[in-house]
Amino acid sequence: MEESVKTLTDLDKIIQAFELTEQDYRSYPALTLAYIGDCIYDLVIRTIVVYKSHKQVNDLHKKATSYVKAETQAVMIQGLMDNDILTEEERSVYKRGRNTKSHTVAKNASVAAYRKATGFEAVLGYLYVTRQMERILELTKIGLTYAELEL
Asked: Is 91 contained in some domain?
């Protein structure tokens, strides 16, 4: 008798290891999706920076911060939106994240850029909780071309 083998994602492994209860992503507030999306994006960027350069940690941090700041994320998401790269669901999540009132403000970004960046992070959070890591990488890669930053 042949059994279907399910490949566990890293998220599945975390859920199992800590005996967490799975939630429907639609029940998460947009800022919660942005919270996890910020972490995922930061992890992707830090991984790229570490693998592409052999520098001191301080230099790695400086390089990574140019990619994770709100202004860069705002340019990335604007390029993705302008070029119709996002799916309908991703657009909906982006708008939820962008339009959510946050009680914090970025130190070095305009309110508009900060809100766009929050929307971008919400999309990445949505993709993470729905186990779409390939799509996270695809959107990040395309988005970075709009930001015109060399990794």
From this structure: yes
